[in-house]
């Protein structure tokens, strides 16, 4: 019996899970338990409990729980066996930063913005300085900016580089770069720029598919104008994002449109939409065709070649391949006349993907794809009753626009915990999707695909030019929206895993309540969800209520960022780290996510010791998106793009940079304070390093830690000769341990029990200098570096400042 749209009721809108789908989720949690054991076990128990309540009510089924447990254990075993081995030991010549002649075979080539290629090499061999040939286990990722050649998978290369282990920023609760590459069997990395290091290429393996794909990509690249709109069309059609600028990528990220740039299910949906359009056109030209093939099946048939062509053209893209597999299952279910096409097709595709690669459950893009589609499948039917009915043109347009907006809202609502946890940033204006996505799907992509096919067959490239011009107009609109504040991006609290699980339980309970089913399970789900959602906040509040202070030195590579935490949850950030990269923002990627982990993005104050980019660049993001009460920064402020960005952020936040000079004191409350010893007045004769703020964290007059910025030996010797009390238990080593800041007399006056140093792993400067290390050791001061230990945290209980606790992210233990 056919039903019209108006017959849809809330009682039938919420799909349930089939038994095999529950078992599959249990297996997924088992795999995830390899990395997150406690979170995965609690999530599995919640899944089993909710499913049991809905399926059996109060009747306990031991057999059902046994099956779920078996699936969980199977997933854990499969995940353990599938996980690549840990990174092998680092060779001695690599620790010495020696240049070697490296050879390898290209396994994968991935484009990145700003003319970069990431080339994964396998079968790695090195000619070490002693002339011996040494093989490296696993793979190497080679980042090549401004490449002079686009290699082909299977091609051998030989180049002169300085390889090093894959090493991320090791901070608690943030993105683990090394884990990401370990899942891909990559343990080493190297960088080159332009034609330097003279890579020598072996013969290409003559892969016909690759050659044709490269020809198509080159055809598109030469046909589109050399504008960012042309670069966007080229990226959307071929997956090559190397021509995109940092400005374009950041504008799309700020508007919450980054998902439209990464080839994924959205773009496969555009291909399917073209198939629907062709099916309508076919019915208009030959109405009798619907008597032979119903329109939904005809749309699947016509879309399939387009989807296959697009998935093939966009390789290598794991997300695009996943979307193609999902389309295949959805098309098969639709062709078979099955219901629940979206949800069942999603589970079938995910099952195939996990069966092929169990560790793919850790892939963020796969998690986001699955959660977004599941959110649409579950939430969108509930929104249908809100859309207008009627057959007029206005009603149809409004219904179509409303449906598009509802789909976007449903997907983003489901993704909200995942986006918040991984990025700590959320775009607040979904209306941009209402304009951007239809233009992409109805103009840019159809014209681009048409132009690509026509250019290959007839040499006609005009549709590609039109597509690029439309994309240029869209980017101008996006830039204007960003400059006018219409695309707000806000920092949010990054939820802890119990909060994510609590959110999911409460959302599920609300959906069940709307459906008016399973009422007996609602109180249990509500209480459990509320406890999981609120519990972590109570834990954080109890932690903040303890009468103690802590200093956390973040691992920001060759930079410095120090967080001082005081009773009551008051936090002060001293410097924010920074890199010389135009595309990587350490404030957005490392410092901001750490600060917002389980806490609101708020700071009592920010101190900028001096203007060098390795201390200041990361603060731009903090000042832009965090709630900061006060900023202490002396002249000169940073210059260049960092300075412009910081000045704009300070103006928007209504802050005024306050000077902090020798003799100044910042009262932090509850007996804590910062006392400043340098610089002496607003002198411009000293170097930028020697104008660094030197501040001591004190508790009721007793020194806890001394932070020295990048001051060098003359200033340190002057401080040692002075009358100020510099004594403290922890010394933040000046200038990352540079020999230019060696000051034995200063170490004697400070008398620190521990010294902590922020420096990059295998940094080119050799920090900390051996002379500095020896001088500290001779005075009985234990030295810890972020290069060795990752993030370092020192805690002082009140009233017993000499009894410190030290904690290291990289597993050095508690000292």
TrEMBL record:
Q: Tell me the superkingdom of the source.
A: Bacteria
State the InterPro entries in the record.
Answer: ComA-like_MBL (IPR035681), ComEC_N (IPR004477), Competence_ComEC/Rec2 (IPR004797), Competence_DNA_uptake (IPR052159), DUF4131 (IPR025405), Metallo-B-lactamas (IPR001279), RibonucZ/Hydroxyglut_hydro (IPR036866)
Membrane protein topology class: Multi-pass membrane protein
Gene3D superfamilies, per the entry: Ribonuclease Z/Hydroxyacylglutathione hydrolase-like
Keyword Cell membrane assigned: yes
Q: Which residues form the ComEC/Rec2-related protein domain?
A: 236-513
* DUF4131 domain: residues covered: 38-196
Q: Provide this UniProt record's keywords sorted from A to Z.
A: Cell membrane, Membrane, Transmembrane, Transmembrane helix
Fetch the NCBIfam families from UniProt: ComEC_N-term, ComEC_Rec2
Name of the protein described by the UniProt record = DNA internalization-related competence protein ComEC/Rec2
Species: Pseudodesulfovibrio senegalensis
Lineage of producing organism: Bacteria, Pseudomonadati, Thermodesulfobacteriota, Desulfovibrionia, Desulfovibrionales
């Amino acid at each position: 019996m056919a039903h019209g749209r108006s017959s849809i009721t809330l009682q039938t809108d919420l799909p349930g899970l089939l038994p095999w789908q529950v078992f599959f989720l249990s297996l997924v949690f088992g795999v995830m338990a390899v990395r997150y054991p406690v979170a995965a076990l609690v999530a599995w128990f919640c899944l089993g409990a909710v499913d049991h309540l809905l399926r059996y009510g109060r009747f306990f089924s031991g057999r059902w729980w046994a099956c779920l447990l078996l699936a969980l254990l199977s997933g854990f075993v499969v995940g353990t066996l599938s996980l690549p081995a840990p990174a092998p030991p680092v060779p001695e010549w690599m620790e010495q930063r020696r240049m070697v002649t490296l050879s390898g075979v290209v396994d994968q080539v991935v484009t990145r913005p700003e003319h970069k290629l990431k080339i994964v090499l396998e079968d790695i061999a090195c000619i070490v300085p002693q002339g011996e040939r040494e093989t490296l286990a696993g793979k190497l990722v080679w980042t090549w900016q401004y490449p002079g050649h686009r290699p082909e998978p299977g091609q051998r290369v030989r180049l002169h580089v300085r390889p090093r282990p894959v090493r991320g920023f090791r901070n608690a609760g943030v993105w683990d770069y090394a884990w990401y590459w370990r899942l891909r069997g990559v343990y080493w990395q190297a960088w080159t720029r332009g034609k330097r290091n003279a890579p020598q290429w072996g013969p290409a393996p003559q892969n016909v598919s690759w050659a044709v794909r490269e020809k198509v990509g080159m055809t598109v690249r030469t046909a589109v104008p050399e504008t960012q709109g042309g670069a966007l069309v080229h990226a959307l059609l071929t997956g090559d994002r190397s021509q995109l600028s940092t400005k374009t990528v950041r504008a799309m990220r700020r508007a919450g449109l980054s998902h439209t740039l990464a080839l994924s299910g959205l773009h496969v949906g555009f291909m399917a939409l073209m198939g629907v359009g062709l099916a309508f056109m076919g019915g208009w030209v030959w109405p009798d065709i619907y008597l032979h093939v119903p329109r939904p099946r005809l749309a699947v048939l016509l879309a399939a070649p387009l989807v296959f062509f697009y998935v093939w053209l966009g390789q290598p893209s794991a997300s695009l391949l996943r979307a193609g597999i999902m389309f295949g299952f959805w098309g098969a279910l639709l062709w078979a006349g099955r219901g629940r096409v979206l949800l069942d097709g999603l589970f079938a595709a995910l099952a195939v993907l996990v069966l092929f690669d169990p560790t793919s459950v850790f892939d963020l893009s796969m998690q986001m794809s699955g959660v977004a589609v599941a959110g649409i499948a579950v939430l969108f039917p509930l929104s249908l009753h809100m859309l207008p009915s009627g057959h007029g043109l206005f009603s149809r347009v409004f219904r179509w626009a409303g449906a598009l907006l509802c789909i976007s809202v449903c997907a983003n609502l489901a993704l909200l915990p995942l986006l918040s946890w991984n990025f700590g940033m959320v775009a607040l204006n979904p209306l941009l999707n209402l304009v951007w996505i239809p233009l992409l799907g109805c103009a840019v992509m159809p014209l681009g695909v048409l132009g690509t096919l026509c250019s290959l067959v007839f040499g006609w490239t005009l549709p590609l030019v039109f597509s690029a011009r439309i994309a240029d107009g869209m980017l101008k609109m996006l830039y204007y929206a960003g400059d006018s504040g219409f695309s707000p991006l806000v920092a949010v609290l990054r939820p802890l895993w119990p909060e994510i699980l609590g959110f999911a339980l409460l959302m599920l309970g609300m959906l069940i309540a709307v459906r008016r089913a399973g009422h007996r399970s609602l109180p249990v789900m509500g209480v459990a969800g509320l406890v999981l959602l609120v519990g972590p906040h109570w834990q954080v509040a109890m932690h903040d209520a303890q009468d103690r202070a802590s200093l956390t030195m973040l691992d920001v590579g060759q930079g410095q960022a120090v967080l001082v935490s005081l009773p009551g949850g008051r936090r002060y950030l001293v410097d924010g780290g920074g890199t010389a990269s135009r595309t990587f923002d350490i404030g957005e990627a490392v410092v901001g996510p750490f600060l917002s982990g389980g806490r609101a993005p708020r700071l009592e104050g920010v101190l900028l010791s001096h203007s060098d980019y390795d201390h200041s660049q990361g603060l731009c993001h903090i000042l832009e998106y965090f709630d900061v009460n006060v900023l202490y920064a002396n002249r000169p402020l940073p210059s260049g793009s960092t300075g412009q960005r910081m000045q704009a952020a300070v103006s928007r936040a209504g802050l005024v940079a306050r000077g902090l000079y020798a003799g100044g004191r910042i009262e932090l409350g509850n007996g804590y304070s910062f006392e400043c010893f340098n610089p002496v007045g607003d002198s411009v004769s000293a170097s930028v390093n020697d104008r660094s703020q030197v501040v001591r964290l004190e508790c009721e007059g007793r020194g806890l830690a001394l932070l020295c910025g990048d001051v060098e030996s003359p200033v340190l010797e002057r401080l040692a000769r002075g009358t100020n009390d510099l004594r403290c238990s922890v010394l933040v080593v000046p200038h990352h341990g540079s020999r230019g800041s060696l000051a034995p007399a200063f170490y004697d006056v400070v008398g620190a029990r521990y010294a902590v140093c922020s420096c990059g792993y295998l940094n080119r400067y050799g920090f900390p200098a051996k002379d500095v290390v020896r001088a500290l050791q001779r005075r009985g001061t234990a030295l810890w570096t972020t290069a060795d230990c990752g993030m370092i945290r020192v805690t002082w209980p009140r009233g017993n400042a000499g009894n410190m606790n030290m904690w290291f992210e990289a597993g050095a233990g508690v000292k």
